[in-house]
Every structure is written in structure tokens, then in C-alpha cells.
Design goal:
Blueprint lengths: L5 E5 L3 H9 L3 E5 L2 H10 L4 E5 L7 H11 L1 H4 L2 E5 L5 H10 L2 E4 L4 H13 L6
Parallel strand pairs: 1-2, 1-3, 3-4, 4-5
């Protein structure tokens, strides 16, 4: 069973978009963190799938901006990476509680992490 919530996907591969759309999710794509923030200002999204490494604004900078402007959404981010996590990136991932899916990934793993992100209830301190 799939809900029809919207997902914002950054720097997505065709595989990520297809996996989500074939599972019934509505997907909007942004080619950069700056474009993602613009989209967040104009439309409602329930989760974000983002590459951890991006030019100009990486996933960490994007998470910090989302956390400041859309705190509940920051906890519903799923990061995708093809790189081995550096110590700093691993610390960041632990501190946020967000999922990190490593490439190559099984489509079922991506879906599992997106569904888990959607179940997160963020309580502001």
C-alpha cells in the first residue's frame, strides 16, 4: 500500500526516480540544493532524498538549511552516497538520525528507508 505524498529528490538518478514513481510516489526533482530550497518555499514535500555529495551545496549544508527553515522535514531526509563515508560525514549521519543508502543499492532498501523516514515524528525541543 502506498501513500501519495510528495518526495523531493535531489540530483537523482533515473533509478531513484523510477523506484519511487513505480511505487506510487509523486516525485519532484531538483538539480541542486539551492533549487531544492526554492521548491520547498513553493510546494509541500513529505520527504527528501538527497545525494550527500553535491557541488555548491552538499547534503550537510542542505540539511542545515532545511533544519533551520523546515525543522520537521529535516528528520525526514534520506541521503544517498556512492562514496565511503568520511569520519565527519559518518558523525553527521549519526547526529541527524537520517538514513544513508549506499550505492549501489537495492530498490527495496531505498523504499524501506523512505517509508521509515515518513514514519518519523519530529518533536521540537
Amino acid at each position: 500500500m502506498c501513500d501519495h505524498r510528495r518526495r523531493l529528490v535531489l540530483r537523482s538518478s533515473v533509478l531513484i526516480r523510477d523506484v519511487l514513481e513505480q511505487s506510487g510516489y509523486e516525485v519532484a526533482e531538483a538539480e541542486s540544493g539551492a533549487v531544492a530550497l526554492e521548491l520547498l518555499g513553493t510546494a509541500r514535500f513529505d520527504a527528501i532524498v538527497s545525494d550527500l555529495r553535491m557541488p555548491e551545496m552538499d547534503g550537510i549544508a542542505l540539511w542545515n538549511a532545511v533544519r533551520k527553515q523546515y525543522p520537521a522535514l529535516a528528520g525526514r531526509m534520506v541521503f544517498v552516497t556512492g562514496d565511503t563515508l568520511s569520519a565527519a560525514a559518518a558523525d553527521f549521519m549519526r547526529s541527524t538520525g537520517c538514513a544513508c543508502v549506499e550505492k549501489p543499492f537495492a530498490p527495496a532498501e531505498l523504499l524501506r528507508q523512505v517509508q521509515a523516514a515518513l514514519r518519523r515524528v519530529i518533536v521540537d525541543a
